Amino acid sequence: MSLGTASLEEEYISSENQELSPLQQSVEERIAMIIEANLADSYNHDNDENDSSIYSNRRMFEMTEVTETHIGSSKDSLQTSNNLPKISPKNSPSINSPSNVSPKSTSKNSPKSAASKTSSRSNYDDDYIKYSDEELEQNLQLFITKKKVPSFLMRDQLVDYIKRKSLDALIDENYDEAAKIDKILIELQNAFKEIDEANSPDLESQKNKAQMIENRIASLKNQQNLTNQQWEKRINDFKEKEQEKIEILQQNHQKEREKFEEDCQSRYFLSKFSKPSTQLLQLRRVQKSYALAHDFEAAKSVKAQADLLQIEETKIAQRKAMNSVKVNYLQLVEKQQREIDCYVQNSERKLFELQQERERQQNVDSKVMNQLGKKLVETKTKKNSRIAASSLLSTPTKLPPLTANKRIAEYRRSPEKTQLELKLTDLSSIFAKAKHPK
After folding, report:
1. What single DSSP character describes residue 263?
2. Which of 57, 283, 365, 412 could make an S-S bridge to 95, C-beta 3.0–4.6 Å?
3. What are the C-alpha distances in Å from 283 to residues 275, 278, 286, 299, 335?
4. Are 75 and 84 in contact (CB under 8 A)?
5. What is the Cα–Cα distance from 282 to 261, expressed in whole angstroms?
């Protein structure tokens, strides 16, 4: 820490430990007297006790700020330190104001503290953005010069500010200025009204748009129901037709099996297995030769051998024929089953494609329905917000601060001046003329 900084801190600490100057003590006594006077005045008003107490507290707050400003100016003249002790009234009750009143020491070069002294923010609604008098005056001048309407959030406070300016001019008996301000207020309110009227077609448009969307949603729902019925009918018809085709195919298969059974009993089929062996044919030729030679005993013996061989060969041929029929029949049944399976698979594939097509269409309709629903919600939200904004814009502006009515009441009760205000400004010239008459 440098030597200069240490010396400044020592001076600052020593200045804080000093006792209050006579001027500061008189200021503190004056603040206490103001508090007592305002509290007594608040208790004397029976008709409007609550407003009176609020007014007196606010008045006390204003006087405290003014007194604090005098303290700041007197500090410079007495060359005291930059920070005076906080002045707080002794034995004073709590004050109902936007914040507890505890005047803070102000710096001469602090623009924020100066703005807080010269501006009065609207504190009757903490949810609103509070604008300073400088901001309100700037927007008022923009409206006067360029007819630029202020933002929506500033409207109430700007109207309040204009009414306060009109009240100040009225109390100061500056009637021309008051009339001018009233005219500006009327122009501003007319501008607000024009904006409200301009918003009215939008409300009607939003209402019509919402109605159109609702009608479209209802139409789409009816179309969806009709489409679903058509799809159900189409799928059911397809299933019925496919079932009919399968039944026809099964009937054809049954006919094929019956024909196969008939073919198995045909001479053409049996001829494949009824051909005798060479040995049997040879025995039959020998038998025939013995018979022609009238050797019946030999013919009879050969015939017996040939009959036994024929019986044996017939059994073998029959087994072969049965095996062939069995194999061919199984092949026929398998072929028919493959045909049915292929047809069923093809039918199921077509049915799946139909169901997929129906699902795709339903998904498209659902997406359209969801989009319309979202658009309807957005439209109703915009309509409700615009209606709310229109109702807010169409409602009367808020009342001026609580001190305004009090000031009007005081101005109404104030007595007329009974004496003329005379000021002798140029006494030296009069004395000079008296001393040196021409």
Report:
1. H
2. 57
3. 15, 9, 5, 10, 44
4. yes
5. 34
> pLDDT digits over 211-259, tens only?
888 888 888 889 889 999 999 999 999 999 999 999 999 999 999 999 9
- Report whether 337 contacts 257 (CB < 8 A): no
Q: Pick 238 or 76 by higher pLDDT.
A: 238
Question: Of 294 and 436, which is predicted with more confidence?
Answer: 294
Residue 10 has pLDDT above 60, yes or no: no
Tokens 């100057």 found at: 21
418's tokens: 């009974």
Q: H or E stretch including 224?
A: helix 175-264
Per the listing, tokens 């017996």 go with: 304
Alpha helices per DSSP H over 293-426: 296-394, 402-413
pTM assigned to the model: 0.39
CB atoms within 10 A of CB 164: 20
- Integer angstrom CA distances of residue 392 from 131, 213, 398: 19, 27, 11
Contacts of 159 (CB under 8 A, 6+ apart): 185, 188, 189, 397, 398
| Chain-centre distance for alpha carbon 163 | 38
Positive or negative: CA dihedral 432, 421, 41, 171: negative
Q: Cβ of 27: how many Cβ atoms within 10 Å?
A: 19
d(CA 367, CA 360): 11
